[in-house]
Amino acid sequence: MKIQNDALQGSTPLETGRTQSTTLPAGAHALAGHKAAGHDGDSVEISGLSAHLSEANGVDARQREARVAELAALYAKGEYRVNPAQLGRKLVDHAIGAGKGVE
Hints:
Layout: E1 35-37, E2 43-45, H1 48-76, H2 84-99
Antiparallel strand pairs: 1-2
C-alpha cells in the first residue's frame, strides 16, 4: 500500500527520509516524565517499564564492557585459557538454538 500526501507539513523532497526533531523544555531530562511532545501536538510516551528496560540494558552493557576488558587483560598477560569442552557445548547449543529461531 502506498500513501501519497503532497500536503505533508515539513516534508520537502530532501527531508522525506528523516523525522522532525523536537526539543525538550529547559532543564528537562530525556526520560524525565517519560513524555515528549512535538510542536504540532504529536506526542510519544515511554512507559515506566520501557524506561526500566533501557536502564537495565545500560547496566548490562557496562558489565559486558568490564568483562571484555578483564578478558583482554588476561589475554595480554598470556593467562587466558579456554575450556574446549565448554566452548564446544556452547557452540552446539547456539547452532541448535539458531536453527529454531532462538538466538
